[in-house]
Write a structure and sequence with these properties.
The protein is of the alpha+beta class and 198 residues long. Helices cover 29% and strands 35% of the residues. The protein has 2 domains: 83 residues, no CATH class; 84 residues, no CATH class. The strands form 2 sheets. Strands 1, 4, 5, 6, 7 and 8 form a 6-stranded antiparallel sheet that branches. A two-stranded antiparallel sheet has the order 2-3.
């Protein structure tokens, strides 16, 4: 084997090794997506404050309500309960009006909600913290690397975790109405690979 041939073989071998392992040490969109997804999965669940109005309502108003009360009504978590005359004396007799209360389904589900308010007489729960969604990755849109630091830009959106979330996410501004949102993440390279910096 001539010296020239040896140099060609060695050069080819080193190039092959670099092509095999060099990319694995870099941070591409796929790896960034994997790391960002893990962070989002570990993040807390998005909780919304749901208030049950204590003003007198008509049953049809609840069914047609476009907000959280309508969602809970149509899913069977709350209902319109006729107010007994003894509890309605300050308003007089108002047939057809009612008080928003939890159904049996709502009472069972509320054990996993956070009760944060009741009416003046402590008869009815009026406000809850309800878990409804989590952030989920849509896509990584770019990766820039400088030495041992990198930045990935990506989009995320709210993903419902239950039927209440499915009803609220598409319409609730607090949940961005389920629309993708832009964000970025910083990375740092360590001896065992890339990690999210914070």
């Amino acid at each position: 084997m001539t010296p020239t041939t040896s140099r060609l073989i060695i050069g080819f071998t080193l190039t092959s090794v670099a092509s095999m392992f060099g990319c694995s040490s870099g941070l591409d969109r796929s790896k960034a997506a994997e790391l960002i997804s893990k962070k989002l999965d570990a993040a807390k669940t998005e909780i919304v404050i749901v208030s049950l109005p204590q003003t007198l309502r008509k049953p049809e108003e609840m069914q047609n309500d476009t907000g959280e009360v309508g969602v809970l009504t149509r899913l069977g978590y709350v209902e319109c309960q006729q107010i007994p005359p003894s509890h309605n004396s300050m308003f007089g007799d108002l047939p057809g009006y009612c008080q928003i209360v939890l159904t049996d389904k709502g009472k069972k589900a509320s054990s996993d909600w956070g009760l944060i308010g009741q009416d003046y007489y402590n008869r009815y729960p009026t406000e809850f913290h309800i878990p409804v969604a989590k952030r989920t990755l849509v896509e990584v849109t770019g990766v820039t690397i400088k030495d041992t630091e990198a930045t990935a830009t990506y989009t995320w959106k709210m993903k419902p975790i239950n039927e209440i979330g499915e009803g609220l996410v598409p319409q609730d501004p607090r949940l961005n109405k389920g629309q993708p949102q832009a964000a970025s993440e910083s990375f740092r390279k360590f001896d065992d690979g890339w990690r999210i910096a914070n």
